[in-house]
């Protein structure tokens, strides 16, 4: 190999081959550079911008909710979510991405979540390009772990999102409702309204009906982020759009009343109680049983827990105060009496056939709740003792149209228009309704006997019954129940008119009704609601119910001469209203109208249970 | 054994100029990549220190006659093998592989030294005047010389660096006079291996493809009977054996191989780096974002930006113009190196130059193709540009040895 030109020539040949390979290799590199930097430059320039610039939502703080005296009922606080943000780049690559088991295990351990769940979330995120929340409301311990390891876990970020907080838990839960993070379906449906992922949205109650007031308007800004997702700066080229905070709500609710209602209803399995101010229709308190803790919803429920809450036979999510419909029972006798007095069928002093425990009509026997009978009564006494026989006789003389019109004028049979979602209308049957139901002429006057005592097809919500009590208290003045008192410190704009005209009747007629109602509590069927030193007017009711025990009802207002509160109680499947509903009203009134110490004494000396064995609290 | 007086005009000035230019660009880029807040901030000062040391080492490598290095070849090779074993036993790991030896203040990769030692030993063997590469006892020991360090480095595991050994071997075989037909036949089972992995060997089409390719190769190369039988047997063995091995691999092992073949599937790991590297280079465009102004770099999207992915920083900040400049400088360096191997009159010197340049070329190619996303992530630094002390010294010594050959290219 040492000598001569043959070696030299051989070397030159070999150099030629090697040089060709070298040049080929570098040509490949040049080709690659041209492709990336010239042909696909625009694509990669965008990706690098997407990499570093992100449009971030500046969350508008959701308005707080307070009672009429400023006691906080709902506010928001920042919580930390751990999020997986898939690569913005090269979606085709992302879609085919393999999620490594080791990586998933590590992330799952860090965020203290289920491995399978994390894997599924990351897969979906890679496919869709949308970030996935791996862990909500993370503890500071989890946060510290994530922060420590974030450099080695590209895509994992910590995001601050507002969480709704209800400091009193289940108190007034149905009235307040709850707000949770917006879901994908809602995002799609409401995309035009400026919602973005991570926003809170009201689902039920005031949170839902006042969504537009509470919500505010999110702002936005472009921020520069680094590879760890940490923001480095705000992009100056595009000025940020500041958020418009949601407005605060003050409700008509009075915390004292609400608390008293909650306490009174504490032992009730199913039922509802509503208190309204008869002077303006503002709702002072509203309770529905069974209840739920809205905080649970704010944190996000597991699927099992959701099923448990929404599918159960008791359905805690149902707001029985406005969605539950019940026969009003004898509480409806107020309506019957006013109708009869207005129509001139009877006067307050009219004596009808005495009550011997039942009434014969059309070949049928209609029983009075008091088997022994009430004897001879005038109209006021019949109301006081809730004598069914007296009211049957009124029913036979009363026209269905007249009775229905009065009921509707009180606000029964139609939505009251309260500013809460999904209110039920109830039902006040008319001639046309019976014709539709049974066929024209195929139903008889007998329905009037049942309607006169509040049985049969008629159905009311507890709110409507409270409204009935309030309107009876004020002599038929029309009211519209509502829960919003002030918005952002200003009185609620233009309170809408009542849905119903109210009931006009002579002062004498009203006086008779008021007298009867006062006597109900004083010495009639509702003595369990008696409060020493306070004139209380009320009416008991017992609604027959094909699915079990009777529902106990009671409605009342106080003080009887200048009413400031009107209430309705419906306790499902317990028995007589005088026994199971009236005592609850008594407890609430004692708490509200007696000094603390007296209220306690009163409760101790007059416990609820004793009532059942004491005075005969009838219907 | 003289340190003959250095005659400066004989130095390969273009190669020297190109090397200095690359070093300067490297320092500027490392400066840019390490002015970003983070763990690597300010490392460019250290790099500058290393550079001074490296230039000194290159000078020493240039001055001593290459024959003075010659007797050191086998001891150096032996030592480097010992060090490679030591790495496997005591080495410190990074990213799941043991590649480094800790020697007090410095850490180094013995595989770098093993590369130069192997080149020396091969050059010595192949420069024997009685060499006849058709004979088994002449080519087989050389194969062992390359495969032992290859196996050791591959076990670290550092597949990228380990493949440098067979590549050097093949090029030096070729340079020493092995007929290209023989080389082509010997390398062809590698193609079969890859095809057997990617395609389905149970399909008749696979065998048609392999058979057709081999037949064409045989017609062109016309090998001897022995070689022909050996080649066909190897192809059959690889084609039949691969599915068996593949079926015995564990799921995770298979996935590792697949990730190696297609890193885009793994955006949280190796794929992330490649994607970010491509974004960096592509977003640089023709003129680049400007020195110190790379956003991919500055916001830490680009991983290992001062070491393995430094070329992406060049591409982002200096654009196509800067990247092409670097590519052209490397091309000049490599081609001048091979040219030097071609003109050196001494056989040992020629083979030495060829082996050293091949090592450089391999490393440049693998690194640059990796940063543009056309090769898997292997963790090879870019010679003369990347941050890293031992690598820089070894690369400068390689350049120094090439200059050594240049100085004495007219000697026999």
Automatic annotation (TrEMBL), chain A:
- Its chief place of residence is membrane
Claim: Endoplasmic reticulum is one of the keywords in the record: no
| Class in the EC hierarchy, top level | hydrolase
Gene3D superfamilies attached here? DD-peptidase/beta-lactamase superfamily (3.40.710.10), Penicillin-binding protein 2a (Domain 2) (3.90.1310.10), Penicillin-binding protein 2a, domain 3 (3.30.1390.30)
Q: Where is this gene product found?
A: Cell membrane; Membrane
Q: Where is this region: Disordered?
A: 487-506
Task: List each copy of the Penicillin-binding protein transpeptidase domain by range.
Answer: 271-589
Domain (Penicillin-binding protein dimerisation): residue spans on this chain: 58-235
Q: Please cite one Gene Ontology biological process associated with this protein.
A: peptidoglycan biosynthetic process
Q: Which GO terms describe its cellular component?
A: plasma membrane
Q: Does the keyword Repeat apply?
A: no
Q: Which domain of life is it from?
A: Bacteria
Task: Name the membrane topology term.
Answer: Single-pass membrane protein
Annotated TM spans: 15-36
**Entry keyword set:** Carboxypeptidase, Cell inner membrane, Cell membrane, Cell shape, Cell wall biogenesis/degradation, Hydrolase, Membrane, Peptidoglycan synthesis, Protease, Transmembrane, Transmembrane helix
EC number, UniProt record: 3.4.16.4
Q: Name one GO molecular function term.
A: peptidoglycan L,D-transpeptidase activity
Kindly give the NCBIfam families that the UniProt entry links to this protein: pbp2_mrdA
Under the heading PANTHER family, the entry gives: PEPTIDOGLYCAN D,D-TRANSPEPTIDASE, PEPTIDOGLYCAN D,D-TRANSPEPTIDASE MRDA
Full protein name:
Penicillin-binding protein 2
Query: Which taxonomic lineage is given here?
Result: Bacteria, Candidatus Eiseniibacteriota
């Amino acid at each position: 190999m040492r000598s001569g030109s043959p070696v030299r020539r051989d070397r030159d040949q070999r150099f030629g081959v090697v040089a060709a390979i070298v040049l080929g290799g570098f040509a490949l590199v040049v080709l690659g550079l041209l492709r990336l930097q010239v042909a696909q430059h625009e694509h990669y320039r965008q990706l690098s911008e997407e990499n570093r610039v992100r449009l971030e939502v500046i969350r508008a703080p959701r308005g707080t909710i307070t009672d009429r005296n400023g006691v906080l009922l709902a506010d928001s606080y920042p919580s930390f979510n751990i999020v997986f943000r898939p690569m913005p780049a090269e979606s085709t690559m992302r879609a085919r991405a393999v999620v490594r088991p080791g990586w998933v295990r590590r992330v799952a351990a860090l965020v203290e979540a289920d491995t399978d769940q994390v894997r599924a979330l990351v897969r979906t995120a890679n496919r869709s390009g949308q970030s996935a929340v791996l862990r909500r409301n993370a503890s500071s311990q989890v946060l510290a772990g994530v922060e420590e390891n974030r450099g080695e876990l590209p895509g994992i970020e910590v995001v601050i999102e507002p969480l709704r907080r209800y400091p009193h838990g289940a108190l007034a839960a149905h009235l307040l409702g709850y707000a949770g993070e917006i879901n994908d379906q809602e995002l799609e449906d409401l995309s035009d309204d400026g919602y973005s992922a991570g926003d809170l949205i009201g689902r039920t109650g005031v949170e839902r009906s006042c969504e537009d007031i509470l919500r505010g308007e999110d702002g936005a800004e472009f921020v520069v982020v680094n590879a760890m997702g940490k923001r480095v700066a705000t992009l100056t080229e595009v000025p940020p759009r500041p958020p418009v905070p949601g407005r605060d709500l003050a409700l008509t609710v009075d915390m004292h009343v609400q608390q008293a209602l909650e306490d009174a209803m504490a032992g009730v399995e199913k039922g509802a109680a509503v208190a309204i101010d008869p002077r303006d229709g503002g709702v002072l308190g509203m309770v529905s049983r069974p209840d739920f803790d809205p905080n649970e919803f704010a944190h996000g429920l597991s699927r099992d827990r959701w099923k448990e809450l929404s599918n159960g036979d008791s359905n805690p999510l149902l707001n029985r105060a406005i969605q539950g419909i019940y026969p009003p029972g004898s509480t409806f006798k107020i309506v019957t009496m006013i109708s009869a007095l207005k129509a001139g069928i009877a006067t307050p002093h009219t004596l009808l056939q005495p009550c011997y425990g039942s009434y014969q009509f059309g070949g049928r026997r209609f029983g009075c709740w008091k088997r022994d009978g009430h004897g001879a009564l005038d109209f006021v006494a019949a109301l006081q003792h809730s004598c069914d026989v007296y009211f049957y006789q009124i029913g036979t003389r009363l026209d269905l149209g007249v009775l229905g019109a009065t009921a509707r004028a009180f606000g029964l049979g139609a939505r009251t228009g309260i500013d809460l979602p999904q209110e039920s209308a109830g039902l006040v049957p008319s001639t046309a309704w019976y014709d539709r139901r049974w066929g024209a002429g195929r139903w008889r006057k007998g329905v009037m006997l049942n309607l006169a005592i509040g049985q049969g097809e008629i159905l009311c919500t507890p709110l409507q019954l409270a409204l009935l009590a309030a309107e009876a208290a004020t002599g038929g003045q029309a009211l519209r129940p509502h829960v919003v008192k002030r918005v952002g410190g200003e009185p609620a704009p233009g309170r809408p008119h009542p849905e119903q005209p109210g009931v006009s009747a002579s002062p004498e007629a009203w006086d008779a009704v008021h007298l009867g109602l006062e006597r109900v509590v004083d010495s009639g069927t509702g003595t369990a609601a008696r409060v020493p030193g306070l004139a209380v007017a009320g009416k008991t009711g017992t609604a027959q119910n094909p699915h079990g025990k009777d529902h106990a009802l009671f409605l009342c207002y106080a003080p009887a001469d200048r009413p400031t509160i009107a209430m309705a109680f419906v306790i499902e499947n317990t028995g007589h209203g005088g026994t199971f509903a009236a005592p609850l009203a008594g407890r609430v009134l004692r708490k509200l109208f007696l000094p603390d110490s007296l209220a306690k004494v009163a409760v101790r000396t007059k416990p609820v249970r004793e009532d059942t064995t004491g005075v005969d609290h009838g219907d | 054994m003289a340190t003959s007086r250095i005659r400066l005009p004989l130095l390969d000035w273009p190669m020297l100029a190109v090397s200095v230019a690359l070093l300067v660009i490297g320092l500027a880029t490392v400066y840019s990549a390490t002015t970003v807040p983070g763990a690597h901030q300010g490392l460019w000062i250290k790099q500058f220190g290393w550079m001074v040391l490296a230039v000194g080492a290159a000078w020493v490598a240039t001055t001593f006659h290459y024959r003075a290095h010659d007797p050191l070849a086998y001891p150096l090779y032996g030592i480097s093998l010992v060090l490679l074993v030591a790495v496997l036993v005591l080495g410190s790991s990074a990213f799941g592989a043991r590649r480094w030896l800790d020697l007090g203040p410095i850490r180094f990769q013995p595989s770098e030294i093993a590369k130069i030692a192997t080149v020396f030993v091969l050059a010595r063997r192949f420069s024997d005047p009685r060499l006849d590469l058709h004979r088994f006892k002449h080519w087989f020991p050389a194969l062992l010389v390359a495969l032992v360090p290859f196996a050791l480095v591959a076990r670290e595991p550092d597949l990228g660096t380990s493949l440098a050994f067979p590549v050097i071997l093949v090029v030096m075989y070729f340079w020493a006079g092995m007929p290209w037909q023989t080389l082509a036949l010997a390398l062809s089972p590698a193609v079969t291996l890859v095809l057997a992995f990617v395609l389905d060997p149970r399909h008749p089409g696979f065998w048609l493809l392999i058979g057709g390719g081999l037949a064409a190769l045989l017609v062109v190369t016309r090998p001897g009977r022995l070689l022909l039988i050996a080649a066909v047997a190897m192809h059959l063995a690889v084609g039949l054996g691969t599915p068996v091995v593949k079926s015995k691999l564990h799921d995770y092992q298979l996935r590792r191989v697949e990730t190696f073949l297609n890193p885009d599937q793994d955006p949280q790991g190796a794929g992330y780096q490649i994607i970010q590297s491509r974004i960096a280079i592509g977003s640089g465009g023709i003129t680049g974002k400007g020195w110190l102004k790379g956003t991919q770099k500055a916001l830490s999207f680009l991983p290992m930006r001062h070491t393995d992915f430094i070329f992406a920083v060049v591409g982002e900040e200096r654009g196509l113009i800067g990247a092409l400049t670097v590519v052209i400088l490397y091309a000049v360096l490599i081609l001048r190196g091979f040219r030097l191997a071609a003109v050196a009159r001494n056989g040992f010197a020629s083979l030495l130059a060829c082996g050293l340049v091949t090592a450089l070329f391999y490393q440049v190619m693998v690194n640059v193709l990796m940063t543009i996303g056309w090769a898997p992530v292997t963790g090879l630094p870019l010679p003369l540009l990347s941050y890293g002390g031992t690598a820089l010294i070894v690369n400068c010594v390689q350049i120094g040895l090439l200059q050594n050959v240049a100085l004495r290219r007219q000697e026999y």
